[in-house]
Structures are given as structure tokens and as C-alpha cells.
Amino acid sequence: MAPDLHKLLRSLRVWDPQSTHLPPFDPSAAPATPLPLFTEWFAAAVAAGQTEPHTMSLATSDESGLPDVRIVMLHGADETGWSFASHAGSRKGRHLAARPYAALAFYWPVLGRQVRVRGPVTAAPSADAQGDLHARSTGALAAALTGRQSEVLDSVEELTRASEAAWERARGEPEAPVPSWTLYRLRPEEVEFFQGDGERRHVRLRYRRGADEERWERELLWP
């Protein structure tokens, strides 16, 4: 018998106290720029045992403006922006080539927190992309060497053969170049921090880059 989706949905609880702690958040004490607060919240999510806190939703749009979203891994965040990587010929790579603007969303339910980031995206120099790739695991290199991301796959067996060959090369040639591998950097124009509240009085603090590009404006949003 097939499960009743609506019954399942009604049975679920948001921010169960057995697994979630909702810490207080005083926006008046937040730093003047968003990166230090992001770093603090990220570290808190790690300390709280959040599973895969470095994964995030990445939203892009195609040439026609149609949106798409997927989960990717955060590769870094500093003054140059929030970084992620992919093949230039992948769907997200093609989207970013046509419309170099994106949005990110992090969700850490163990603390009832979200962070949303959006802004223009640029490709880092190739040397940075290769350095980032080779600093990761053998599996990451093997996946990159397998290539053909987002192309139509004829069979699972074809993938197995290509992956096995890529793993063999990654183990024997840990510095193997992957020319299509691209490190993207999103330079934030807006960063929003959301702290959940048990009484649904959620705190939302938005940073917006000012006209001089170096100063940030802060404002609260209704939940």
C-alpha cells in the first residue's frame, strides 16, 4: 500500500526540541559586515552536530530566465565571495555563462537557522580552480575526471566504466588537470540571516551592500 503523503506531512514536526536548540539572536549586536557572522553561525552549526553544514542550495537561471536549483558544496567564503565549483559545461555552468548571477541558501535545522546569499558570479582563475580541486579528496578528483556532467547517460554500465577509469587515473596521477573544472565566486550584494523562534517570532537580519560597495546597510525584516 502506497504511503499517504499528506498524512506523513501532517505528522512531521518542525524544530523538535529533542533535536533542535533555538539560540537567541540579538541583531543589534551583529557585526558591521556579514562574513564574520556567517563564520560564527557556520562554526556553531558544526559544533551543534549539524549534518553536512557545508552543503547549500544554489539557484541559477537559464538564458530564458527559467530558474533551477540544486545542492552543492561550499568551497570557501572570504572577502572575494562565497565559492563553489563545477564543470563549465554542466547545466549550472551554462546558466552562469549566460546569466552570471545566483543565489545560495544554507539551512541548519539543528539551530533553526538559515542564511541566504545572492549576487553576481565570476569564474576564478584556472590555477585557483585546479588548486582547489587537487586539495580535495581522491574521490572528488575522480568525479571531476569522469566529466560529462549533465549530459544524457546511455546506461549505468557506461558510467561504471568511465568512473572506474577515472578512479584509476586519480589514484595514479593525483595532480591530473581537469580543464573544465571551474571555481565560481559569488560576490554578495545581499546576505540574510534567519533565526527561528519557538513562538514564530523569527528574527531576520538582512545586509545590503551600500552604494560605495564597501559599506553594508543592515535592516530587520518581518518574519
TrEMBL record:
Keywords: Flavoprotein, FMN, Oxidoreductase. GO terms for molecular function: pyridoxamine phosphate oxidase activity. Coiled coil: none annotated. Residues 181-223 form the Pyridoxine 5'-phosphate oxidase dimerisation C-terminal domain. Residues 45-157 form the Pyridoxamine 5'-phosphate oxidase N-terminal domain. It comes from the Bacteria. InterPro entries: Pyridox_Oxase, Pyridox_Oxase_N, Pyridoxamine_oxidase_dimer_C, Split_barrel_FMN-bd. Belongs to the pyridoxamine 5'-phosphate oxidase family. This is Pyridoxal 5'-phosphate synthase. It comes from Streptomyces purpurascens. The lineage of its organism: Bacteria, Bacillati, Actinomycetota, Actinomycetes, Kitasatosporales.
